[in-house]
Amino acid sequence: MPTLLTTNISEEYIGEATVSLTIRKKLFVVYLRFTVYGELLEYCCPVIELPNAALQLTYDSHTYSSIKAELDYLPCRLLLMVFGRKRKIEDNDVWRPVMDKLLDLRKGVNIRDLNLPTSHEMVQTIFEQQLSVSARTKMLNVYDHIYLLSTATRSSNRKKIIQKIQSNNNPLAIESLTKVVNDEDEWVGRGAVRALGRMDDTRASKPLLEILKHPNELISSAAAESLGVLGDTEVIPYLLTLLEHPTLQVKTIAALALGHLGDTRSVPTLISVLLQERISIASIQVFKVLSKLKDDRVLEQLIFVLNNSAQHKRQHAAEALGDFGDLRAVEPLIYALNDQDNWLCMHAAKALGKIGDARAINPLAEALNNTDENLRFEIALELAKFGDTRATPHLITGLGYKEEYDRKRAIDALGKLGDLRAIEALIEAIKHPLNWMHYHIFEALGHLKDPRAIAPLISTLKENPSSSYTFSIVYALGKLGKPAVKPLLEAFNDQNNEFRIRVANALSWLGNECDLESLLETLNHLGEDKNGMIAHHLCKAIAKSGETAVVPLIEILSNRHHIARDQAAEAMADIKDDRVLQPLVEALKDNDNNVRNKAAFSLGQLGNKIAVLPLIEALRDVDSRVRWSAAAALGHLKDKRAVLPLTAALKDREIKVRWMAASSLKELADPRAIEPLAEALKNKHEWVYVRVALALGSLGDTRAIEPLIKVLKRNLLFNDEVPQVLVNIGSAAVLLLITELYSKDINMRLHAISILGEIGDKRAIEPLKEVLKSETNIKCIKALKESLLKLT
Q1: Please, is 53 exposed, middle or buried when counting C-beta atoms within 10 Å of its C-beta (0-12, 13-18, 19+)?
Q2: Residue 30's pLDDT is what?
């Protein structure tokens, strides 16, 4: 039995299981021994070598070339079982015995609390970084993808795996990606090169610099682009030396890389490439790079190429001039609109649309006389950007195009153009089966604000009240204004509860356009309202009537038999009128839990401190939702009388009440809360722990430093608040933050670097300099330089 790992973990935390693998209808049995962490210690399989034809093993849609490869992969798979996201285990899952044994070994104990030694480097890293579930799954996926990249036999699979590696951008993959650059499929190699540029790590610079000399221009030009994306400015001196390289391709690629990095010393070389007759993958990139450098030397040469070169180069020059965005390019581009080459005309039109100079309007309109329909459509799109309705007929034609992308562009342009001649065509487009395009159609109809769209929109809403497109329809109806009110009110006669909710939602957008009496009549004769959402939206609409809505809403709240009492209480928050205060205070003692909950919420929003004592009383309500709303309201009111009652609420039996009490104490910022908050740090629930740490830290107590750093390490909620709280604590946090400069977790290093720069304590200067010498992550390097600049 091959031994893979040695460990001093006690036997009670070591398990064994047998897995049966079916390969080409043959059954192979593998015996395993593993630790509670999922580390594979030993395995035994009677078959190690088989003919390739018999080695097609499929698992989770991956095909491996040998049983040996499957066994090599087992340590990673076991780790994924333990540390990755939990996945559903099928009845026929061959690895179920292993998962069952792992669960049995853990016996329900949190694996972090076992406090046992680990052997595998992945396990050690997970424990050292105290990663969250999503972060450790992401890290394990990197190992997963690296392995799959080395074993995938199809180029299509390798491309997909490289894309996944790129999205993870973990530097662990740099070596594996470098090996794939010379793949037999050049597009796989190009994908690997592009992924290297997204590793955010200077260790990717060295292989990329070597790839600049690759004989395949598809690969080498991708390396130039990747160096620009990577942004490692330390490679610039080496690139400058390559500008003297005897090989024209290497010189060109080096200049491209410099251009991508924003170095204008590349301009002369790039211009010389621009003026050559030869067109290549690299020279196409030259146009794009030069347009981004915004160097005056470039503009003149681009105009020259536009007027005097071969057609394919003129097209790229027109596109580059649009990106350059200089008004001096307008006249040459207008002249190019009349060229016999339709592709050049199209690029010139797009460039004029980007520059946005009014001199282009009439020439673009005249170019609509071109005989090519596709070109007319592209020109119409650009003309529409200037608000010229001469584009409308051609855009309407585009609504019937086969390509969805073209139809989408036509719809968006028509909506922004605002020409009512488009209304019938857009209404007709609604009749097609619902798809993603309808989002844009509904939005365009809302922009046009033509009453003719009301009936078709309501009809579509009625036919599809539960679809994901309903919000877009409701939004469009809301934009149509007063003419939509009466048809929507009439639609309440329908029996479909879901449809009536959507109609009420539309009315809530139109509240100030609605007749108050009609809304009240509809609310008072509401009938069935299964989850209260209809009443919620109608009350929102009523509240938009302002002061005139106060008395009707109070009457609804006071009517013990009205279906919408809680919704009326909530709607009062939208009306800043003192007349609603006393009814809401009285509602805090109502028999209906929902009414009390909404009343507490609204009292917090209204901001009147008359409500403080009744809300303090509500902290003892039997309903946890009421206690939560009362705690939140007291935080909004910021009255010191609430400090002690809120500290008592830190011991509430409901988690959500405890974390809201901590949040409100943070808002009150009263020193009397310090000791109760420090005691509350013993709370194990993540949400409560974070809120308590933030509240304690905002009060300047140094006992919050370690918990706050722990929150940053775990990448928990409210990470955007934690750094500022640590900055406010100041110098007391410096030494602990300095230790985090050496964390393996990039995000934690970034936080520590940034916070130290903001605190401004000189003790951080030397540690920051020391870390800068060995740091490889691009983002961390930039952050280190910025923090050192602030400190020095």
Answers
A1: exposed
A2: 80
Question: Rounded distance, CA 290 to CA 284, Å?
Answer: 10
Per-position b or e across 286-305, b if 16+ CB within 10 A of its CB: bbbbbbebebeebbebbbeb
CB 180 within 8 A of CB 150: no
Rounded distance between C-alpha atoms, residue 392 and residue 353, angstroms: 16
Taking Cα atoms as reference points, which of 453, 386, 452, 450 lies closest to residue 417? 386
What is the pairing mode between strands 14-23 and 26-35? antiparallel
CA distance 70 to 42: 14
Residue 524: C-alpha distances to residues 227, 498, 518, 562, 592 (Å): 67, 19, 10, 8, 19
As a whole number, mean pLDDT of residues 94-103 equals 85
C-alpha of 511 from chain center = 33
Helix or strand run (H / E) with residue 478: helix 470-479
Cα–Cα distance between 182 and 173 in angstroms, integer?
Answer: 16
CA-to-CA dists, residue 166 to 146, 155, 192, angstroms: 11, 16, 8
Q: Residue 361 corresponds to which tokens in the numbers above?
A: 């309007």
And the tokens for 88?
């559903």
245 sits in the region (left: phi over 0; alpha: psi -120 to 50; else beta) called: beta
DSSP letters spanning 284-297: HHHHHHHHHHT-HH
CA-based nearest residue to 415, from 432, 398, 434: 398
Amino acid at 166: Q
Apex 44 CA angle, 40 and 45, nearest 5: 125
d(CA 3, CA 9): 15
Phi, psi of 387 (to 5 degrees): 75, 20
- Three-state SS for 510-578 is CHHHCCHHHHHHHHHCCCCCCCCHHHHHHHHHHHCCHHHHHHHHHHHHHCCCCCCHHHHHHHHHHCCCH
Report how far residue 382's alpha carbon sits from residue 350's, in angstroms, rounded to the nearest whole number: 6
Q: Are 578 and 602 in contact (CB under 8 A)?
A: no
pLDDT in tens, 387-444: 999 999 999 999 999 999 999 999 999 999 999 999 999 999 998 888 899 999 999 9
pLDDT tens figures, 288-323: 999 999 888 999 999 999 998 888 899 999 999 999
How many CA atoms, within 13 angstroms, populate the side-chain half-sphere of residue 741? Answer: 28
